[in-house]
From TrEMBL:
Belongs to the ABC1 family. UbiB subfamily. It is an enzyme of class 2 (transferase). It comes from Salinimonas sediminis. This is Probable protein kinase UbiB. Pathway: Cofactor biosynthesis; ubiquinone biosynthesis [regulation]. The active site is at D285. Residues 121-430 form the Protein kinase domain. The gene is ubiB. Keywords: ATP-binding, Cell inner membrane, Cell membrane, Kinase, Membrane, Nucleotide-binding, Transferase, Transmembrane, Transmembrane helix, Ubiquinone, Ubiquinone biosynthesis. Its EC number is 2.7.-.-. The lineage of its organism: Bacteria, Pseudomonadati, Pseudomonadota, Gammaproteobacteria, Alteromonadales. Is probably a protein kinase regulator of UbiI activity which is involved in aerobic coenzyme Q (ubiquinone) biosynthesis. GO terms for cellular component: plasma membrane. GO terms for biological process: regulation of ubiquinone biosynthetic process; ubiquinone biosynthetic process. The keyword Nucleotide-binding applies. SUPFAM superfamilies: Protein kinase-like (PK-like).
């Protein structure tokens, strides 16, 4: 199965002529030789541009590859604009599956015979179609609210499982044979990625995520989350309030209505850090196809987010280390950044902190006080990879989703407002959050949250204190008894060993005596004494164990 899927992938790549896009100097001789051997597979899309061929190939290969294309589409600083524009089609313009099939799934899942039992209007043509599902516009019969109905692609799970199976195989090979295999931890990364994809296949989980995000940002000026009709949601169907916004990637439309682009970019940073550090629950699929801008108040723009299939969470330790790293980084305290990495176990404990600090300074210092437009992200990324390899920095699989989301946010910031000073925008937010976590206010909040538990246990405190004092008083006597018991056990063990040695000696003597012309009684006596000593040794050892 894995070999067949690998052949399919290679076939699709060759049919779309993607091998022709690789410069000859980058392709080793054996790769060129193998390509000539597969002479029966030719480029069938010679009339298409490079961007169109890449997009069609990723679309043919399925959701795992489409997700990769979606992420690449946000990195216009790394790709040619024509290729990035074509890849952007993967955000919501993937080829849809037949609408009659979608209607059958909705009827079966919701237990209805006809769609008009629930919807006074249902648009057959999908509004958008992505890698996992497609959405149809509809109007609820009960309240005439405009909604969208999201339907999972049929048999999508089989395709994803086949691709993940192949990725696991490749990850195992890389982890075993690459020099950096153990440090990069590809198997753990693929495991984390598989978990997020499997979660995305359950629309009931997505509905719960949407409800949680909506509650977190209730009344927010920066982000709006549409309402979820949970009573109409199933594992493969989701019904949600229809939103009307401008796609965040449509810069021309945003400029045409005089949107405050600077504030919009700053609010994007605010939304990201709020989700991560305040809520520890963040939208982890924030590509432009899932993010819109409300047209209601261009001077105070508000984001609208959809598609909550992939969310990320952080535990307290990771969140604290990340926040401290960010604050130290924004304050250019590279020594603290290096020390935090060592304390958290992200680099080996024996790392030379002075050298690590200098390496971080070399990468980060040139990009400070520069807007996003003046930062070569590709160059920074390359330097970070080299630094990670040099100091044997271990990949943290639990942070992969966060890193991917940060790439999306940074990519959106470049498109919306290239002059954005990311550091200046994020620093005050993180400093305030840190003060709330470690200051007097944080201590009072913790006391307040623990007060009900303490008040419940307070009446038991005198008894617990009395019992503890009695145990403390009896502790020296118990320690003396335990010490004497250990001494007795040691004496018993020593005696058992002695009897065992004596018994072995007599058994050996009993085995040797028949060689000489001696009475058999001596042999029997020696054997009897040896067995008796062994029995004595066993009893003492058994008594010791008891």
């Amino acid at each position: 199965m894995r070999i067949f899927r690998l052949y399919q992938i290679n076939k699709v790549l060759l049919q779309h002529g993607l091998d022709e896009l690789i410069p000859d100097r980058w392709m080793p001789w054996y790769a060129r030789a193998m390509r000539r051997c597969i002479f029966w597979i030719n480029n069938q899309y010679k009339d298409k541009t490079a961007g169109q061929r890449i997009t069609l190939a990723l679309q043919s290969l399925g959701p795992v590859f489409i997700k990769f294309g979606q992420m690449l589409s946000t990195r216009r600083d790394l790709l040619h604009p024509a290729i990035a524009n074509e890849l952007a089609r993967l955000q919501d313009k993937v080829a849809p599956f037949p609408s009659d099939k979608a209607q059958d799934i909705i009827r079966q899942s919701l237990g209805i015979t006809h769609l008009d039992e629930l919807f006074s209007d249902f648009q057959v043509e999908p509004l958008a179609s992505a890698s996992i599902a497609q959405v149809h516009a509809a109007t609820l019969r009960s309240n005439q609210k405009n909604v969208v109905v999201k339907v999972l692609r049929p048999d999508i799970r089989k395709t994803i499982e086949a691709d993940m199976d192949l990725l696991f195989t490749l990850a195992q090979v890389l982890q075993k044979w690459l020099p950096d295999g153990k440090r990069l931890r590809p198997v753990e990364v693929v495991t984390e990625y598989q978990k997020t994809l499997v979660d995305e296949l359950d629309l009931l989980r997505e509905s719960a995520n949407g409800i949680q995000l909506r509650r977190n940002f209730e009344g927010s000026d920066a982000l709006y989350i549409p309402a979820i009709y949970s009573e109409l949601c199933r594992h493969n169907v989701l019904v949600m309030e229809r939103i009307y916004g401008i796609p965040v990637s449509n810069i021309d439309a945003l400029l045409a209505q005089n949107t405050n682009m600077k504030l919009l970019a700053e609010r994007g940073v605010e939304v990201f850090f709020t989700q991560v550090f305040r809520d520890s629950f963040f939208h982890a699929d924030m590509h432009p196809g899932n993010i819109f801008v409300s047209p209601e108040n261009p001077s105070q723009p508000k984001y609208i987010a959809i598609d909550f299939g992939i969310v990320g969470t952080l535990n307290k330790e990771d969140k604290r280390y990340l926040a401290e790293n960010f604050v130290a980084f924004f304050n250019r305290d590279y020594r603290k950044v290096a020390q935090l990495h060592a304390d958290s176990g992200w680099v080996p404990a024996d790392t030379n902190i002075d050298e690590f600090e200098m390496a971080i300074r070399t990468v980060c210092e040139p990009i400070f006080q520069k807007p996003l437009a003046d930062i070569s992200f590709g160059n920074v990324l390359l330097q970070l990879f080299n630094t990670a390899r040099r100091f044997n920095m271990v990949v943290q699989p639990q942070l992969v989703l966060l890193q991917k989301t940060l790439l999306y946010i940074e990519g959106l910031g470049r498109q919306l407002y290239p002059q954005l000073d990311l550091w200046k925008t994020a620093k005050p937010f993180l400093e305030n959050w840190m003060q709330e976590q470690v200051g007097i206010k944080a201590m009072l909040n913790k006391v307040k949250s623990n007060l009900p538990y303490w008040s419940e246990k307070l009446p038991d405190m005198p008894d617990l204190l009395h019992d503890s004092m009695l145990q403390l008083k009896a502790l020296p006597i118990q320690q003396r008894k335990e010490h004497q018991r250990l001494v007795d056990m040691q004496i018993q063990a020593t005696r058992a060993a002695h009897y065992s040695i004596v018994g072995a000696t007599f058994i050996i003597v009993a085995a040797i005596l028949p060689i000489y012309d001696l009475p058999w009684g001596l042999t029997a006596l020696s054997a009897t004494v040896g067995v008796g000593c062994w029995m004595r040794s066993w009893r003492k050892g058994h008594r010791e164990q008891q």
